[in-house]
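Weekly puzzle thread! Below is a chain. First person to post its structure in token form gets bragging rights.
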Amino acid sequence: MLPPMTTALPVAPHTDAAPSGLGRTLLEKDELDMAPEDTAGLQWLDALATPLWLLRPDGLTVWLNGAARALIGLEHGAPAAAVRVSLSSRFPAALEQAAAGRMVEVRAIVHAPLTLPLEVDLRLVPAPRPSGLILAEAPADSGARQEMMRLNEQLIALSYAYPDIRFELLRDGTILDFAAASPGDLNVPAERFLAHRVQEVLPDPAAGMLAAALGRLNEGQTVIGLDFSLPPPSGSAGDTKFFEARLVALPDSDRVMCSIRNVTERVEAESAARRAHHLLSDAIECITEGFVLYDAQDRLVLCNGRYRELFSANTDLITPGASFEEVLRGGVERGVYRVPDGDLEGWVERRIEQHRGAGPPMEMELHDGRWIRIEEWRTYEGGTVGIRADITDLKAREAELSAARDEAEQANQRKSDYVHHLSHELRTPLNAVLGFAQIIHDEMMGPNNPRYREYAGQIAAAGVYMLDLINNLLDLARIEAGRMDLHEEACNLSLLVDLTFGMMQPRACEAAVALCMEIPDDLPSLHGDASQIRQMLTNLIGNAIKFSPPKDGCVRVRAELTEDGGIALTVADNGIGMRPEQIPVALDAFGQVHGRDQARDRAAERGSGLGLPLTRALIALHGGTFHIDSRLGVGTTVRLTFPPCRVGGGMQRP
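Winning reply:
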């Protein structure tokens, strides 16, 4: 608002300065039909600081003073008629009001050569002399005011383009001014903002939070930031909106600047990112293998629980930000890994090189015996992602398969040896049978030679040997195939041992070996297959006689109850014995520990190597156990243990 202006022309102070330039030109009578006293008045007006115009009713300028010339930037020497003032549609009414003697305030646009149009505020009054003209006055600071208004308009335009809602408040929350591109974000009509307190206009919880913040500002704080959310208005569709507010107390003033920003999109984006992160974390956590991720600087980013479980002794070192080398060396120092002796630093360097190069999969043994398979890949950003799988069971199965393969190879070798021994054991007596039979048949020593009788005995002995060999082979085959039947009955061990001694006595007498039996009279009966028990006794006693020393040899057969109620049947000799590593060989089919020079070289003493394996299979068929103890030069003891369920008059089921 411009200050009021009277219709009379101001009286200029006395000065000797004469009008210059365009002012002097306009004062000449050939341009304006003025009386001399009118011309003198205009000279004084030309020296005023207030911009003045004399206008014709059509807006053409007939005179302007130096201040007006400077305001519009009119070039020196340009005629006044080049300046035109446009009042648009209000001009006729303004002229009428001015002609009637009233002061009229209008916004006008001044057009001058070589300059841009300029908007100015003018006050119009009729000029007393010369008549028919209008005197227009503009404030002296009009240019600065116009620039300020222009900048203010630009700021207002920018404020509407800025996403924040900004309030100018008093300390009690009264809203002095606001600017908002979208005032509806706060669910409040824009007309309610002015002349109200912000805590009364905004809905809860924003109102309460802003009121509390204003209270803290009044207590001395200068800057307060807070977050709040606003649900959609009741009865309307929409989602909750999220805002950030910042209140700043202006120094040396009772005003507060408050900016509120709608951050709903950012909050929703962050929430979606968190959900995606949680989803990915849950998926990684559900992996059965250990998962670990290192960044481009080789620092730990994340790992799952399985990874921590695999390296539980190193858990406190497995923290985000720790370098791979720190974690590795810490594990080595704590003995997590099985590192070769004397190569600790080399092992660590090779492992770091393999990790940074993301080389082929590798297997690593931990100190507790577990095996870990490590696979690593490089990410696009230069990081490393790794999988750690516990392959302990796989390694155990590999070891089992390797052992089974070795055993199969050994079994195949035993099979070859078995066939070789079998062919040898059968060919030798068969050759004897064929040779002696041919001698007798051809009467090569003459008719009725007494030696034919001895040869016939040799043939019979070879036949018996081959029959026993074949029977033993068939028994072993039936037992391994699960087709050996037991004809069970209550057996008297004393009687079975006595019968076996009777059968083996001739051989023992020939070898000068004593047979001793130590069986209590009150020993309970044994429920089993009597023929198989006798066969076990025959095999064990025959071996004992064969390898006992002549003349002072002794074979003892003992039976007794065990602590758990079973019966232990023991056959012991004081013969040449075996070393511990020879015992497995003796238990293999056709296993021959001692050469023929260590046993008496007679056909009757020659063994097939099936006695011990067959005895072990027969006692297992009865549910018992077989144990052999032997020392070289001391003797051999074989212990057959029958389970408690076979002791007594009848078979007792467990």
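Puzzle host: Confirmed. Bonus trivia for everyone else. The chain has 17 helices and 23 strands.
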